[in-house]
Amino acid sequence: MPYGQVNVAPALGRRSLLAGAGGALMLAALPTAARAASTTTASAPTTTAAAGAARTSLVTQGTMLVHADLHNHTVASDGDGSPEAAFASMREAGLDVAALTDHATLFAIDGLSSSEWRTTGDLANAANDPGQFTAIRGFEWSHPLQGHINVWNTSDFADLWRAGSTGSLYRWLIGRPGGLASFNHPGREPGRFDNFSFNASARNQLVGLEMFNRTDDYLFEGWSSGMTSPLVACLNAGWRPGLTGVTDEHGTTWGFHEGKGRSGLWVTENTRAAVFEAMAARRSFATRVSGLRVDATANGVRMGGVLNVTSGDVRFLLDLDRGPAWDGKPLRIQVLRPGTSAPTVVDVIDTVNGRVTDFTVPLDAADGDWVVLRISDPSLANGTPGPAGHPCNDFGVAYTSPWWLRP
Q: Per the database record, which ranges form the Polymerase/histidinol phosphatase N-terminal domain (predicted)?
């Protein structure tokens, strides 16, 4: 949909506003610093593609893979680069889908103003190339204590004046039925989205949980300080997000980052409508390597779906490939289930790149209503490990979106 008709140049250097007499009073509103084998019916994009695997799934039909980065910043908030350059950079880098999501703070201090919001929409419309490259405008609702939440596909934005708490943001979002949102770098801010307090009316619109942000795996974020794994806390609370990875770029080289988070989306075509539909269906996976293809089914149900299972064996098919660069590379699949402070791993399966792995795991809804597959490189360590001896203390490569065992 149109994002706006007014072209207004973004303001530059607004950090200097904090030097005023009242600037110190506003510091609490600022975002915190970031931590160190089938034929599909869709046609593949013709833009420069990242090196890696083919875009056709070996376990499902009807969609194609697009590589996406849905969390990026510019000088419209606390980034360094001009928003006019961002979309071109991401397309040149080989991304198929890209979003600008500058911070929405309080009174636009180090965050989006209304004119910058309109400008970002104009830039996204100019860069958008249906069928080839999808450019999206969004914003990052940024509370210094409760956390940050990305929002896409809305005609306006909510800063801390309009929505000063997670609960009020959910109410704002519910009033915009097409809007979609994501929990960002989950667990970094101490309030953790009011401990992932659940709002059933907002559940369908909360479509993302960042598992990779920049170079970090958030599976055990805060665990060493006595906190619950964000994945466990979020899913056990009742939320049903897809899992994603993002660069959270604040510099000037948008898209050109090996080792930083990114997402795979399975779309019917590369358009805004199809991208948002895939996000809402949770047909996404999180990764931090370029060119990776991940698709998976459980009893024939694609990741992000609901299984008609209360108790019994569930057959998984996992399509995992990064192309010739990883030929023969040993990888590992961990089956994650609900736990208390950390996810329970009920099975570990060794595999190699380029293989469809077929395995069966007994699941019981009495043990919890979700299951996630984590793919790892067993030769490397997790930089933020969990409990001693936990199977996920190796290097995370990707996460599928969850399946749920109940409607």
A: 68-145
Q: Is 397 exposed, middle or buried (0-12, 13-18, 19+ CB in 10 A)?
A: buried
CA distance 187 to 220: 9
Give the relative orientation of helices 114-127 and 83-92 as an angle to the nearest 10 degrees: 30
| Nearest CA-CA partner of 221 in 386, 56, 396 | 386
List the beta bridge partners of residue 104: 141
The answer to the question of residue 44 being in a domain is no
CA distance 138 to 97: 13
User: What's the rounded Cα separation, in Å, for the pair 147 and 213?
Assistant: 14
pTM as predicted: 0.89
Stated as kind and residue range, the H or E segment containing 256 is none
Range of the domain at 194: 64-296
Token code pair at residue 201 = 């009316």
| pLDDT, tens digit only, all 407 positions of the chain | 456 332 323 333 322 222 222 222 222 333 333 322 222 234 343 334 457 999 999 999 999 999 999 999 999 999 999 999 999 999 999 999 999 999 999 999 999 999 999 999 999 999 999 999 999 999 999 999 999 999 999 999 999 999 999 999 999 999 999 999 999 999 999 999 999 999 999 999 999 999 999 999 999 999 999 999 999 999 999 999 999 999 999 999 999 999 999 999 999 999 999 999 999 999 999 999 999 999 999 999 999 999 999 999 999 999 999 999 999 999 999 999 999 999 999 999 999 999 999 999 999 999 999 999 999 999 999 999 999 999 999 999 999 999 999 86
Tokens of 329: 């590379």
Rg (CA), the chain: 20
Decide which of 272, 296, 320 is a domain's last residue.
296
| CATH number of 376's domain | 2.60.40
Contact residues for 209 (Cβ-Cβ < 8 A; gap 6+) = 182, 183, 186, 230, 231, 234, 239, 241, 242, 243, 244
- Give me the helices (H) in 37-113, please: 83-92
Residues 364 and 269 occupy one common structural domain: no
Q: Are 142 and 50 in contact (CB under 8 A)?
A: no
- The total domain count for the chain is 2
